[in-house]
Amino acid sequence: MSIALSIKQLVKTYDNGFQALKGVDLDVKEGDFFALLGPNGAGKSTTIGVICSLVTKSAGKVSVFGYDIDTQFAEAKKQIGIVPQEFNFSQFETVRTIVVNQAGYYGLKKSIAVERTEKYLKQLGLWDKRDTPARMLSGGMKRRLMIARALIHEPRLLILDEPTAGVDIELRRSMWDFLREINAKGTTIILTTHYLEEAESLCRNVAIIDRGQIVENTSVKALLKTLNKEVFIFDTREAL
Ligand code: ADP
Ligand code: MG
């Protein structure tokens, strides 16, 4: 089985001198459903930012399905679909336009773009909203819109940064079911979360990141066995 994501000795020092990542090592296997778990400020979004080249790293190596993100950027980019933590689409464009336009970045044919837009908007329960401007959507719908957009080029690796933060419990369940389904069909998934329960119900393997360092890297089962949840390093029980 091949390695979907390989991170070696990743360091990120922001311009103000703050070192957000202090030598992160991480391997995620193809087909895995992987959680990067950690408290606020641990370095999860910084790590994701580096993987999809939105954040410039200070040192280290990152490759996606064997493609180096520096020297084989175009190939690496094709392998990844990203659902960022913050909404980053135009609030004035329609749901359909936002998804179709994304296909342009990957050079997809118009007919394929249109067909896949319909497919993913239907799967994510947004087809009825296709002509609605994004600003009219609820938070959960906006999150699902970003998932549809991330899938348009059918990436082998889907990365979601805190996908269920602020999403109510019903919607969270249906989003989880959807993610399980596409993982079962072969898409490798990495999500970041600060909820242990989210990792527990979705993921097979988990790395815990704290203050820019990986402090644990194991299966979810093994983590739950060794962990006394009452003294867990951060409170994950809120909101679930
Ligand atoms: P997480 O996603 O785990 O909550 P982040 O990766 O967003 O954490 O942030 C990690 C640390 O880096 C935090 O202490 C945050 O304040 C800091 N940080 C994030 N972005 C910047 C930036 N642009 N400049 C300086 N520090 C930053
Ligand atoms: Mg974050």
From TrEMBL:
Domain ABC transporter: 5-236
MF terms in GO: ATP binding; ATP hydrolysis activity
Alphabetically ordered keywords of this record: ATP-binding, Nucleotide-binding, Transport
Name assigned to this protein: ABC transporter ATP-binding protein
Lineage: Bacteria, Pseudomonadati, Pseudomonadota, Gammaproteobacteria, Cellvibrionales
Full-protein interval shown: 1 to 240 of 317
